[in-house]
Amino acid sequence: MSVDVPAPEAARTPADTSALLRVEGLTRHFMVSGTRIDVLHDCTFEVARGEVVAIVGQSGSGKSTLLNILGLLDKPSSGTYTFDGVETTRLGEGRRSRLRGEGIGFVFQQFHLLERRSALANVGVPMVLGGVPVLRRRSRARELLESVGLGHRLNSHPHQLSGGEQQRVALARALSREPALILADEPTGALDAASSGMIMDELLGQAERRGAAVVVVTHDPKVAKRADRVVELVEGRTR
Ligand SMILES: Nc1ncnc2c1ncn2[C@@H]1O[C@H](COP(=O)(O)OP(=O)(O)O)[C@@H](O)[C@H]1O
Ligand SMILES: [Mg+2]
């Protein structure tokens, strides 16, 4: 049985600049062999619809930990995280996973594509999980790949593509359900300047054209410079 994906809400337009997400007093610690490691101490910030925010900070400063919490892959130890009007920290796994699937797209430094599947099939994965019928899924995946300049690579497998091309497949996959929030963890870290520029063009375009919020972790000053705002993580605190 399959269910149609609802049309994107009218609220998700570039004109709507209300906060899509807000974290307040967020902390995260890990217990490692009985010792507590405090990673995030006190993070408070908002991201508006249509806004592009870069998160910067030294290696080990907690950027990926923060991004995983924003992506509902992890929970804070304390504090609140409100996404699309819903305070998420007390929700059960079912609700969290639905919010994540419908509202959040991820891009990682290492692409994380399925090696044994074509570009087209990779882009279709979130739509399989979202119950989109097979024909709609294929045509939408083709459109998405065309929009990132890979219309001639639909049947290529990841190992037949360059790093920049693989990341464009990963980006098309992240966009397939038109998420209100796009999270990218060092998406250009493994790419040359030209590919990196293309990925940033597409992320910025998503914010401009559809009012998506984009949070991108980066080491690259060129990437950070193109964001609307930079949040720096220093010793587990945002500033
Ligand atoms: N699951 C975990 N268990 C224990 N320590 C962790 C875990 N995840 C991250 N850490 C630690 O938290 C710190 C921040 O990690 P991370 O968020 O990956 O930093 P960044 O992405 O800024 O390089 C590191 O010291 C890391 O070892
Ligand atoms: Mg990291």
CATH fold descriptor: Rossmann fold
Q: Beta-sheet strand percentage?
A: 25-35%
Name every ligand kind in the structure: adenosine-5'-diphosphate, magnesium ion
| Strand order, sheet with most strands | 6-7-8-3-9-10
3D shape: globular
Structural class, please? alpha/beta
* Gyration radius over CA: 18 Å
Low-confidence stretches: none
CATH H level: which superfamily? P-loop containing nucleotide triphosphate hydrolases
How large is the count of helical segments? 7
How many E strands? Answer: 10
Instruction: Tell me, rounded to a whole number, the average pLDDT.
Output: 93
* Helix content, binned percent: 25-40%
Tell me about the biggest sheet?
Answer: 6 strands, mixed
Classified by CATH, the class is Alpha Beta
**H/E series, N to C?**
EEEHEEHEHHHEHEHEE
Number of separate structural domains: 1
CATH architecture: 3-Layer(aba) Sandwich
Question: Overview of this structure, please?
Answer:
The structure is a single chain. The protein is α/β, with parallel strands linked by helices and 239 residues long. The protein contains 7 helices and 10 strands. The protein has helices at 63-70, 93-103, 119-129, 134-147, 163-175, 193-210, 221-225, and strands spanning 19-32, 35-48, 52-56, 78-83, 86-87, 104-108, 181-185, 213-217, 229-234, 237-238. The N and C termini lie far apart (47 Å). The mean pLDDT is 93. Magnesium ion is lined by residues 63-64, 185. Magnesium ion (MG) binds next to helix 1.
